[in-house]
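Figure 2 data, in text form.
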Amino acid sequence: MKDKFLDIMKSNTGYVAKHNDYMKDIQMKAKKLTYEFNNTAPDDTEGRKKILKKLFEDENLNIWLEPPFHCDYGFNIHFGGFALINYNCSILDTSPVYIGENTFLAPGVCIACAGHGIHPEERIVNTSKPIYIGKNVWIGANSTILAGVHIGDGSIIGAGSVVTTDIPENVIAVGVPCKVLRNITEEDRMNLKEEIEMQ
């Protein structure tokens, strides 16, 4: 039964499940590894890499992640290439979470596949849907991405937003709930001529 539950969790289909002890058992590995990671020395770059490769079960992992970090399982978080995850991010990966190449998560971002029953008598029931974040996406500080959401390549989610529905590619979207503000265009280029310039 535990293996069947794992297969369902790793699938790209949403599910509904009663709370069970399998969840606690499977979570324990992630709890131990995130505890170990969050208590590493700031200059222990190699030690952090080893822990994260175990957590995400990815020997080719190429990300920069600042502690503290929390997740439910780790193995359900998939990176398409380099990604930057800043301080105090949490990912509830009860379903797969796909994070595209060159995507940045600012401090305090929460990505939550998990939910609960709407009716009070069914609140204990767990729900879950996958989340897809495209390439070159920037998620602003303290934003929340909810279950089942797709965020298109190149888009920006403004700080403090709550994303409840899909966001198309190459747009700036902000708010609670998050809505498209405008497209990103060629006029947004900075065209730097030097490594650093005063503005």
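Caption note: Residues 21-38 form the longest helix (18 residues).
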